[in-house]
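haha ok so turns out i had the wrong file open the whole time. this is the CORRECT one, sorry everyone. sequence first:
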Amino acid sequence: MSDAFVRDYLEESVRVLRELDAGMVERLATGLGSARDGGGRLFILGVGGSAGHASHAVNDFRKLCAFEAYTPTDNVSELTARVNDEGWDTSFSEWLKVSRLGKADAVLVFSVGGGSKEKNVSNNLVLALEHAKTVGARIFGIVGKDGGFTGRVAEACVIVPTVSPDRITPHTEGMAAVIWHLLVSHPALKRAATKWESVK
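then structure:
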């Protein structure tokens, strides 16, 4: 069996890494560090695979970066109650309201498309970010495609370059994991050693 697909995918991944905007990643790191150092909390939002990323990243930002961090998708009972009783679109924004999101806090979005009202995709992200804007919270993102609504409203948003129109989702979600691991290792954010690096 040919390994052409594997080679192509890996080469695309290398190309994505080369084309990432390092300056924007730096802005994201320093912006998040500034929010934390100012006493703000971090709320991480994602849908689908990005919800899994959000949960993992909450752990990393809390444990390695001393950030008070949360994601609504970690509480499946509240999330599904809100979806059942009030609808999907407001599931994140209403959660942020109960969490008393304020101007000292930050919201970080993981999303392939960044949310779009016009295309009726990930409206819960759009409404959550509209609420964040209303209260003056800081907005950050790691997204794909053209950045969508997140890209338009975030103060720092890393847009994963599209190198293959057939593989936008896997490359965006794969690189999101690379980027957030970079962030929790960044000197502006990291406060604690990772376990295996500290084992002698």
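The chain is about 55% helix and 10% strand.
again sry for the mixup
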